[in-house]
Each structure stands twice: as structure tokens, then as C-alpha cells.
From TrEMBL:
<feature type="binding site">
    <location>
        <position position="153"/>
    </location>
    <ligand>
        <name>(R)-pantoate</name>
    </ligand>
</feature>
<dbReference type="GO" id="GO:0004592">
    <property type="term" value="F:pantoate-beta-alanine ligase activity"/>
</dbReference>
<keyword id="KW-0963">Cytoplasm</keyword>
<feature type="binding site">
    <location>
        <begin position="147"/>
        <end position="150"/>
    </location>
    <ligand>
        <name>ATP</name>
    </ligand>
</feature>
<feature type="binding site">
    <location>
        <position position="61"/>
    </location>
    <ligand>
        <name>(R)-pantoate</name>
    </ligand>
</feature>
<comment type="function">
    <text>Catalyzes the condensation of pantoate with beta-alanine in an ATP-dependent reaction via a pantoyl-adenylate intermediate.</text>
</comment>
<dbReference type="InterPro" id="IPR004821">
    <property type="entry name" value="Cyt_trans-like"/>
</dbReference>
<keyword id="KW-0436">Ligase</keyword>
<comment type="subunit">
    <text>Homodimer.</text>
</comment>
<comment type="pathway">
    <text>Cofactor biosynthesis; (R)-pantothenate biosynthesis; (R)-pantothenate from (R)-pantoate and beta-alanine: step 1/1.</text>
</comment>
<dbReference type="InterPro" id="IPR042176">
    <property type="entry name" value="Pantoate_ligase_C"/>
</dbReference>
<feature type="binding site">
    <location>
        <begin position="184"/>
        <end position="187"/>
    </location>
    <ligand>
        <name>ATP</name>
    </ligand>
</feature>
<dbReference type="InterPro" id="IPR003721">
    <property type="entry name" value="Pantoate_ligase"/>
</dbReference>
<dbReference type="GO" id="GO:0005829">
    <property type="term" value="C:cytosol"/>
</dbReference>
<dbReference type="Pfam" id="PF02569">
    <property type="entry name" value="Pantoate_ligase"/>
</dbReference>
<protein>
    <recommendedName>
        <fullName>Pantothenate synthetase</fullName>
        <ecNumber>6.3.2.1</ecNumber>
    </recommendedName>
</protein>
<feature type="binding site">
    <location>
        <position position="61"/>
    </location>
    <ligand>
        <name>beta-alanine</name>
    </ligand>
</feature>
């Protein structure tokens, strides 16, 4: 596995692969790799000649009171996991490499960001879109792999690729879960033992909502109320949101129809967890 920290070296390596006619699958991450990331790597490995993975904790997508400094980091462990699962190129630039001077141009996301996590994290997805624009130009992949646990991010990336005409196929990979249903996340390490026992309630609440829809419930407000009630009954966490939108456009719905997302975010003492399910409703 090639380990690269400089943008110029990464561009040179990627250009060589493209000259050789090899397809490139790209997995952008903020590191502290877990089974969810491994699922992205495996999917990229199946579909491409070369798998490139980036680890970069992007300061632009953290707000002033968020956990940038505290975000878990373990580069040696990340390299080991990447190598074990067949990553060809491991790109880990530092902040000065990615942002050597104040930005004169920044991407501003206009759609799909005024709901869910975007509503309480203004500027977050501008930071995501800006760093991905840089990474897409550096790596020049054929396909880019993202997990559906952060389905709003997938929707934003879908718009970024479409609007800027990146010649990249977006591959959305289903959420990877613990045996008890909790979505894999780098932030799960912040949960106390008691909170860890309660956390699977997020997914159980979503499954209850899914069952209600399958039994004919089409009123969005009623489905959201069911989700909130379950989480409030089974956890001590504070509900940030429990909402339903069309997907991937993320437009409000009163009556459920077509492709929809049911999404939740819950704050525990030291961790904010998100989860969702996406349904196709006839």
C-alpha cells in the first residue's frame, strides 16, 4: 500500500493509474476506521482496479462548539486496517497541506441542507462540499463511496457531483450495524456503558416507523410522533430531530409517497448519534 501525504504526489500517482487505463474507487473518510468504512472499502475493491482512501479530519465542517480537537484519531491503526482490506493508496494530508492559505473560494450548498443535521449545523455541508471538491480534483476517481448512515451527506454529494459535472459515479452503501442494531460510528466510543445500552433504541424506533408504514400509515406527523415516543420511552437522550422527507431532495411531506427518509438525531452526554431508514412507498 502506498502512503501519501502531499497533494502533488497524490495527483502524480492518480494520473499514472489513469494513463494505464485503471479505474479508481475513492473512499473519503475522517479516519478512525470501523466496519462501516471497511464496507465502503470492500465495495470499492469489488468494482475498481485501484482503491484510494483518504483520511482527513476537515476543520471546515466543524462548528465553533463542536468536537474537532476531540475527534478520535489513530493514523497507524487506520493504515493497518486499510492495508488489511486491500487499499492501494492511503492519502493522509495534514490541515496545512489541504488549506495552505485562507480560502479565496468556498463551495456553498444551497439545497438539501436546511433540514436534519444541516439545520443545527450551519456551514457544515459547505465544509463537506468544499473539501470533497478539492479531494475529487486531487484523486480524480471513477467512483466515490459513501455510507447511507449519513444519508443527508449522500444527498449533498449527489447534488455536488450533478451540479459541478464531476465525471464520478456516486455509490451509496447501506449502513453497517452492530449486532443490536446500533449504526457503526466513530463517535460511539463517547457513549457511557448505560448510554450504549440505550443507543439501539434509535434503530428500533425507525423499525417501528417502518412497520407502521407497511401497515398503511401514510401521515408523516403520526409516524414521526411514533418515533419520538419510542426514543423518549427507552433512552435518556435528548431528541435533536425525528423527521421525514422525500429523498434525496429532502423536501417536506405531509403524506408519505415515493422514496422517503425517516431520520433521527439524539444527543447523549458526550455524543450525538444519527440514524435513518430509506423507504420506497408505492
Amino acid at each position: 500500500m502506498m502512503v501519501i501525504t502531499k497533494i502533488k504526489d497524490m495527483q502524480t500517482a492518480m494520473q499514472q493509474y489513469r494513463r494505464e487505463g485503471k479505474t479508481i474507487g475513492f473512499v473519503p473518510t475522517m479516519g478512525y476506521l470501523h466496519e462501516g468504512h471497511v464496507a465502503l472499502i470492500k465495495k470499492a475493491r469489488e468494482e475498481n482496479d485501484i482503491v484510494a482512501l483518504s483520511v482527513f479530519v476537515n476543520p471546515l465542517q466543524f462548528g465553533p462548539n463542536e468536537d474537532f480537537e476531540r475527534y478520535p484519531r489513530d493514523l497507524e491503526r487506520d493504515q493497518r486496517i486499510a492495508k488489511e482490506h486491500g487499499v492501494d493508496v492511503f492519502f493522509s494530508p495534514d490541515v496545512k497541506e489541504m488549506y495552505p492559505h485562507p480560502l479565496s473560494v468556498q463551495v456553498v450548498v444551497k439545497e438539501r441542507v436546511d433540514v436534519l443535521c444541516g439545520k443545527s449545523r450551519p456551514g457544515h455541508f459547505d465544509g463537506v462540499a468544499t473539501v470533497l471538491t478539492k479531494l475529487f480534483h486531487i484523486v480524480m476517481p471513477d467512483r466515490a463511496y459513501f455510507g447511507l448512515k449519513d444519508a443527508q451527506q449522500v444527498a449533498v454529494v449527489d447534488g455536488l457531483i450533478r451540479d459541478f459535472h464531476f465525471p464520478i459515479q456516486l455509490v451509496a452503501v447501506p449502513t453497517v450495524r452492530e449486532e443490536d442494531g446500533l449504526a457503526k460510528s466513530s463517535r460511539n466510543v463517547y457513549l457511557s456503558p448505560e448510554e450504549r445500552k440505550e443507543a439501539p433504541a434509535l434503530y428500533k424506533a425507525l423499525l417501528q416507523a417502518k412497520a407502521a408504514v407497511e401497515n398503511g400509515e401514510r401521515n408523516a406527523e403520526a409516524v414521526c410522533a411514533l418515533v419520538k415516543q419510542y426514543i423518549q420511552t427507552h433512552t435518556h437522550g435528548e431528541i435533536d430531530y425525528a423527521e421525514i422527507y422525500s429523498y434525496p431532495d429532502l423536501k417536506p411531506l405531509e403524506t408519505l409517497a415515493g422514496k422517503v427518509i425517516i431520520a433521527v438525531a439524539v444527543r447523549f452526554a458526550n455524543a450525538r448519534l444519527i440514524d435513518n431508514i430509506i423507504l420506497d412507498i408505492a
